[in-house]
Amino acid sequence: MPRVVVFDETGGPDVLRVVDEPVVEPAAGEVRVRIEAFAVNPLDQMVRAGQSPRPVPLPHARLGVEGTGVIDALGSGVTGLAVGDPVILGAIPDFETRGAYAEYTVLPADRVVPRPAGLEPVAAAALWVSYFTAYGALVDRAGMRPGDQVLITAASGGVGRAAIQIANQIGAVPIAVTRQSAKVESLLAAGAAAVIATDREDIGEATRRHTGGVGADIILDAVMGPGLAELSLAAKLGGTLATVGWLDPRPASFPANPSLTIYRYMSFADMVDPVTARRVAAFLAAGVRTGVLQPMVDRVFTLNDIVEAHRYLEKGTATGKIVVTP
Ligand SMILES: NC(=O)c1ccc[n+]([C@@H]2O[C@H](COP(=O)([O-])OP(=O)(O)OC[C@H]3O[C@@H](n4cnc5c(N)ncnc54)[C@H](OP(=O)(O)O)[C@@H]3O)[C@@H](O)[C@H]2O)c1
């Protein structure tokens, strides 16, 4: 019988367990996907640990907001898709019941998008949430244009690396931020035009140096916390700050730059819109086709090692995505 990861109580990685469950038949308008790979995200860790932004229905909750596989069965009325089509699971806001941590899941047909040609399942599992978030925050909200100087915090992470590549695809100038000077070379190799290592330099002073004294046109921030006030001063007069994450759980300080336009970007709201999802999927497929977008995978686990995968995520040492294959 197919396997699925469930948890009956919130807590550490050990609450996750693999159980056998029969496949569910897709209802009208739904598709069943045989999952080939899924990614482990910081949100999964929060939900599992009981820090979900919304209540999780326990027991027997599922996890996993992104993955990839092939269409395995079609519900009645589904058009434009066929059994065997390779797809990406484009939006799983109801991950507690349809989560990607499984061998099969059932979704509304308009929540899958075509898998870009030439992208293997492991790389495809690392694409959607990170690249959609970086694209949505930088392009759709902040209006990133060619030539913009874009400061990217947590640049070593999934969203950060996606942002570097998307800035390059658009013709903007990505300036990566890391807390560790040991990561400078790998971020330059990942396409950053410049790297600021905050363990040895001041973020505001270094940004002005890299931008001819002007400051960043756009800041993409996945950290928040008390550093937000100082970070905001690295933007130019009239610049834009788009926040996507909260890697620093301490209370965020208010931006100290009064001329900033600030967006708080949540990708789920856009992912569930099929028109937006198709448009972003087309942009990402173009980037994969030209080779500018290359999802970086740090490590691959098997489904039976899901507890180990979460322990590894919690270490915080990954550079790129953690992916699981059934
Ligand atoms: N808004 C949305 O729709 C959306 C979508 C996806 C993700 N997110 C959120 O965005 C954030 C980033 O996600 P991700 O998948 O890119 O994470 P990730 O891959 O786990 O990012 C890890 C990187 O972030 C840096 N980092 C970790 N903790 C930090 C801290 N306390 N202060 C500063 N830097 C820190 C580290 O880089 P260095 O060691 O090099 O500094 C680390 O390599 C998370 O909070 C996630 O929940 C939001």
UniProtKB/TrEMBL annotation:
Transmembrane segments: none annotated. Residues 11-324 form the Enoyl reductase (ER) domain. Signal peptide: none annotated. SMART domains: PKS_ER (SM00829). The keyword Transcription regulation does not apply. It comes from the Bacteria. It holds the Pfam family ADH_N. Keywords: NADP. InterPro entries: ADH-like_N, ER, GroES-like_sf, NAD(P)-bd_dom_sf, Zinc-ADH_QOR/CCCR. PANTHER family: QUINONE OXIDOREDUCTASE. This is Alcohol dehydrogenase.
